[in-house]
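Dear Dr. K.,

Following up on our conversation at the group meeting, I've run the structure prediction for Histidine phosphatase family protein from Marinobacter aromaticivorans. I'm pasting the input sequence below exactly as I used it, so you can double-check it against your construct before we proceed with anything downstream. Let me know if the numbering doesn't match what you have in your notebook.
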Amino acid sequence: MMAESTTVFDLIRHGEPEGGPMYRGSRDDPLSTTGWQQMRAAITEADHWDAIVSSPMRRCVHFARELADRYQIHLHTDERLREINFGEWEGRTAEEVMASDGERLSRFWADPVGNSPPGGETTADFNRRVVESWHHWQQELAGTKILIVCHGGVIRMIVADTMNIPLEHAFSGLTTPYACRSRIQVNISDHGRFQSLVAHGRFDAIRT
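The predicted structure tokens came back this morning:
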């Protein structure tokens, strides 16, 4: 007989990094002053977690460490939760990439599986490592409430796995603005494992 458990994950994307919006990927920029304000504003007095899991990148882990110290809970970092590597597009704005490499950028958004960023990570490899991490923490922290501090692309991969969204549509099918929050509930019972997206971007729906 399988042990039953309910695990609740809150996901939050990092705030604005120094340098503003761009294809940042593996660039390890810290949060800007605005980014810190966005992150702190996204947390409410009603929030409580048993643990925090974070991408090791500075725009995520610095805020995750602040929260872990505030709540006196354990902070785990996971390399698998890094953002996708955008290769030659990193450090450039969407407008700059569109002006110089618009055709390839359009193909990427239309079919990210078949069209990787030049010199970057394939969507399949990115998805594989994120989902591996996602399933690991479901088992490791089963029955608890967890905050994951990560990136827009990572949230897209997790939501796609949760909702069985084809990988071809995982990037274009979900918006993830700075400090956007999501809640996913994972139930394990004799009937199997069920994942459900409870809320995305609606703060009034995820404060309880």
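Two things stood out to me. The longest strand covers residues 5-13. Residues 123-140 form the longest helix (18 residues).

Best regards,
J.T.
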